[in-house]
Design brief:
The protein is α/β, with parallel strands linked by helices. The protein has nine helices and six strands. A six-stranded parallel β-sheet has the order 3-2-1-4-5-6, sandwiched between helices. The two termini are 24 Å apart.
Length: 231
């Protein structure tokens, strides 16, 4: 057994492993412009960080009276997003270092994301992270997206891990809430700096208030090596 004991790691993708939010923003902006003619700003986009594409589009469909089905909207958003993602998605360097170190140590890892499976697979393949991250769960494959715990519990089941032995890495409040609801510990790295004081992050095992600019793989490894099961 490694120095990390029975610990398994579950990683959010967008905003945690990779900086895909700019791509999702552009794809969402174009979609809303076509279907509704309305303007969509970066500040608007920040309201949906951490919420699954399915739930976001279902809300827009109702709120803006869009005729297309949620499935059609997801296909449209994915098409726009993947065109951008395949052209290049930035992996946060310290997160890549963390994944490499955990892979070398034999720590079980999974990606649990609100994106579609097609988007997850495309990003991981395009960034080379698919070499270390082969267990994936999309929010479209479980009954409820974050802040419900379903996607994390499904990931733990695939890893054969008990929830109490899992540590989730998240950038958004809904994900931190989902981790807590799943009975898992959480390392919080807020994508939106202004969200660092959100109560959802208050019980995180580690809260990196400055986000990815302050996050280091070594600090996370230290937490993983010394973390105790939640009370």
């Amino acid at each position: 057994m490694s120095s990390f004991g029975r610990t398994s790691v579950i990683l959010d993708l967008d905003g945690t492993l990779v900086d895909s939010e700019p791509h999702y923003y552009e794809a969402s902006r174009a979609l809303l412009a076509e279907f509704t003619g309305r303007e969509y700003t970066w500040a608007d986009n920040e309201r949906y960080v951490g919420i699954s594409s399915h739930e976001t589009l279902a809300q827009w469909r109702t709120e803006y009276g869009i005729d297309a089905s949620v499935a059609e909207l997801i296909a449209d958003l994915d098409r726009r997003y993947l065109e951008l993602a395949r052209a290049g998605t930035h992996v946060f360097p310290e997160m890549r270092r963390l994944v490499e170190r955990l892979h070398e140590a034999g720590v079980p890892m999974a990606v649990a994301s609100g994106s579609s499976r097609a988007a997850i697979e495309a990003v991981l393949a395009g960034t080379g992270l698919d070499a270390q991250l082969t267990t994936l769960v999309s929010a479209e494959e479980v009954p409820r997206g974050k802040p419900a715990p379903d996607v994390f519990l499904a990931a733990a089941a695939l890893l054969g891990a008990e929830p109490a032995d899992c540590v989730v890495f998240e950038d958004a409040a809904p994900g931190a809430i989902a981790a807590r609801a799943a009975g898992m510990r959480c390392v919080a790295i807020p994508y939106v700096a202004a969200h660092a004081d959100d109560q959802a992050f208050a019980e995180a095992e580690l809260l990196v208030r400055g986000g990815q600019s302050e996050f280091t793989a070594q600090a996370a490894l230290n937490v993983l090596a010394s973390a105790k099961a939640p009370r």
